[in-house]
Design brief:
The complex is a heterodimer of chains A (about 280) and B (about 110). Chain A has eleven helices and five strands. Chain A has helices at about 1-20, 20-45, 50-60, 65-75, 75-95, 95-125, 150-160, 195-200, 210-215, 230-240, 250-255; strands at about 140, 170-175, 185-190, 225, 270-275. Chain A has a five-stranded antiparallel β-sheet. Helix content of chain B is about 55%, strand content about 15%. Chain B has four helices and three strands; from the N terminus they run αβααββα. A three-stranded antiparallel β-sheet of chain B has the order 1-3-2. Chain B is elongated. The interface between A and B is medium-sized, with 28 and 26 residues.
Chain lengths: ~280, ~110
């Protein structure tokens, strides 16, 4: 229905805008025709041509204003006025640059600040996690004692779990990364071996096997993964060392890796469990 | 000459659409026809006729065409579009509803 309306109205508007003189001329002609007929009518009533003309003009009350109203009806005036206003405001702004800068910067800063706040909020809270079925994901925490959330407890929970599809553990930690050039600190997640399977995702670099990562509770942990892209390729390259089947983005950074490096260990048991 | 307020407000569109539904006419002929069919009761001032016609045209309810008039001069003739026909039905129904209601109120007898 609106489309059908546009078929009629859009060409009319365009014509009013771009063939303005022709449209104005037609308006003039249309009103002129009316005026002439009116004069004929008065003349037929016995007025002299000049009297008829005067009477007709009176009757046409406000010929010029009629035209203005017709232009209003066509919606051209609105566009004309807007263009004129724009030009005027640009002129005024150019005259006082200091005011202009403030006027532009104020909303710009406000918009920027809002965008940043929303961006953070959106990334952290509003947007669902980028895993399959994020709505089925739950976090489990011990309320008081962190001592109770030790790794063997997790193993017990995991093995007796009948309520959830999977039970994985993770813990955030620090590590020192030595790429052979400059040692630097990095954040890492210590996770149980079924972490990726539980989340339903695959690691970007390493395809780790569950059996290889999770062993007996007392065995030394064997695996963790670098977090975030900010930690960059050098860590990824360094990190990829113990796995033979890994493709490394840049061969040059991999070749700089010292031979003795190879494993990242976590020293503390996971304190958080995650389904 | 009547002022626009002599017409019930908002009815000019309806009258113009109805007149043009019967026949395509130019502005002058429309004002004459309106006078004729209403027994000189309804008159539209020249000051409101053309803005109203242009508005209807912009709405897509009537379309304009330049043709030779009855006295063989070039004049702008307006005719109803498909959209206009639909709009006419809508406004006519609305008018019937309104005038019925007003008539009922006016005919109330004092107790």
């Amino acid at each position: 229905m609106p489309i059908e309306r546009w078929l009629y109205t859009v060409p009319l508007r365009l014509r009013s805008l771009f063939r303005r003189e022709r449209v104005e001329q037609e308006l003039e002609e249309e009103l002129q025709y009316h005026l002439e007929r009116k004069m004929e009518e008065y003349a037929a009533q016995g007025l002299t041509p000049e009297q008829a003309r005067q009477a007709a003009l009176r009757a046409m009350d406000r010929l010029a204003q009629d035209k203005e109203e017709c232009r209003d009806a066509r919606g051209v005036n609105a566009i004309d006025n807007t263009v004129r206003d724009l030009r005027y405001s640009l002129r005024v702004l150019a005259k006082s640059p200091a005011f202009t800068v403030v006027a532009v910067l104020t909303p710009a800063l406000a918009i920027g600040a809002n965008a940043v706040v929303f961006g953070v909020l959106n990334a952290l809270i509003l947007r669902p996690l980028n895993v399959p079925r994020p709505e089925s994901l739950y976090a489990l925490e011990r309320e008081h004692s962190s001592a109770a959330a030790i790794y063997p407890n997790y193993i017990d929970l995991r093995d007796r779990n009948r309520s959830f599809e999977a039970l994985a553990a993770y813990k955030m930690g620090h590590a020192v990364v030595d790429t052979g050039e400059k040692p630097s600190a990095a954040w890492l997640y210590e996770v149980s071996g079924n972490y990726f399977d539980a989340l339903g995702i695959r690691p970007y670099l390493a395809v780790s096997s569950t059996s290889r990562m999770s062993r007996a509770p007392t065995a030394p942990p064997t695996s963790c993964l670098p977090t975030g892209t900010a930690i960059s390729r050098t860590i990824a390259a360094w990190w990829a060392a113990p796995f033979s089947s890994i493709s490394i983005p840049s061969q040059s950074s991999a070749s700089r890796r010292p031979a003795s490096m190879g494993r990242c260990c976590f020293s503390l048991p996971p304190s958080l469990c995650r389904w | 000459m009547s002022r626009p307020s002599d017409l019930v407000q908002g009815t000019l569109d309806l009258l113009l659409l109805k007149i043009l539904a019967l026949e395509s006419l130019n502005g002058w002929a429309i004002s004459q026809r309106l006078k004729q069919v209403s027994g000189e009761v309804l008159q539209v001032s020249d000051g409101s006729l053309y803005p109203a016609l242009h508005k209807l045209e912009q709405e897509g309810w009537i379309a304009a065409e330049w043709k030779a008039s009855e006295n063989n001069r070039r004049a702008k003739f307006y005719s109803l579009t498909r959209l206009g026909r639909r709009q006419l039905q809508k406004e006519a129904a609305n008018w019937a509803r309104l005038s019925d209601a007003i008539t009922q109120v006016v005919r109330l007898e004092e107790a």
